[in-house]
Amino acid sequence: MSRLSAAELLSAADELADLLTDAVDGGASVGFLAPLGRAEAADWWRGRAEAVAAGELAVWAARTGGRVTGTVGLAFPGRPNSRHRAEVVKLMVHRDGRGQGLGRRLLATAEHAAAAAGVTLLHLDTETGSPAESLYRSAGWTRAGAIPDYAATPEGALHATTIFYKHVGPAVPPG
Q1: Residue 78, exposed/middle/buried by CB under 10 A (0-12, 13-18, 19+)?
Q2: Hey, is 111 helix, strand or coil?
Q3: Of 170, 58, 63, 136, nearest to 161 (Cα)?
Q4: What is the pLDDT of residues 83-140, one digit of tens each?
Q5: Residues 150-165, mean pLDDT to the nearest whole number
Q6: Sheet holding 142-152, edge to edge
Q7: Torsion over CA of 109, 115, 116 and 117, rounded to 10 degrees?
Q8: 66 burial via Cβ count (<10 Å: 0-12, 13-18, 19+)
Q9: Average model confidence (pLDDT) across the chain
Q10: Concatenated DSSP letters for 15-75?
Q11: How far is it, in rounded angstroms, from Cα 122 to Cα 78?
């Protein structure tokens, strides 16, 4: 598993696009509607390079057999009052690689990197009732609540989203 620089992200955009289209084709609610074309998915990944270069986004890719089989990101807010937190984004595992602990390893990588960067609070959202929800619970994340009709599935149906958070690293005293 490796953290991608902006140049590496650009170089891997087509492989990352394959992963993203697989997730959407598999019904994952990751912000896109079906059908998602490979070119559109690759363009989306290329559009993240500037944020990676600026340190606003960190992206890790896992490879199996020379191909990207999973990814996770951390989005860092730029506001002074929120620098203690980050959002876990786009945790995806290719359908061929699921059930082998890769999602848990990706999540742990993001958690450890966040703590090492001085982040003390992580948050994320996921489709209510999805397999990802079970992963987060079993990894020690706390359910904050659910928002009905928050996002659409790749087919366009609205569904609830569950918000989770987790404290990582040492607590920072106020002030």
Answers
A1: exposed
A2: helix
A3: 136
A4: 999 999 999 999 999 999 999 999 999 999 999 999 999 999 999 999 999 999 999 9
A5: 96
A6: 2-4, 57-64, 67-75, 85-93, 121-127, 158-167, 142-152
A7: 110
A8: exposed
A9: 95
A10: HHHHHHHHHHHTT--SS-PSS--HHHHHHHHHTTHHHHHTTSEEEEEEEETTEEEEEEEEE
A11: 15
Q: What is the torsional sign of CA 136, 28, 48, 150?
A: negative
Task: List the structure tokens of 25.
Answer: 């084709």
Instruction: State residue 173's pLDDT score.
Output: 54
Structure confidence at residue 171 (pLDDT):
61
Q: Which residues are paired to 28 by β-bridges?
A: none
Q: What is the pLDDT of residue 169?
A: 79
Nearest to 126 by CA among 141, 113, 114: 141
Please tell me the distance from the alpha carbon of residue 106 to that of residue 72, in angstroms, as a whole number.
6
Paired tokens of 117: 């960067």
Q: What is d(CA 110, CA 3) in angstroms, rounded to the nearest whole number?
A: 10
Which residues does 41 contact at the CB level (< 8 Å), separation at least 6?
16, 17, 18, 20, 21, 24, 32
| Distance separating alpha carbons of residues 107 and 109, to the nearest angstrom | 5
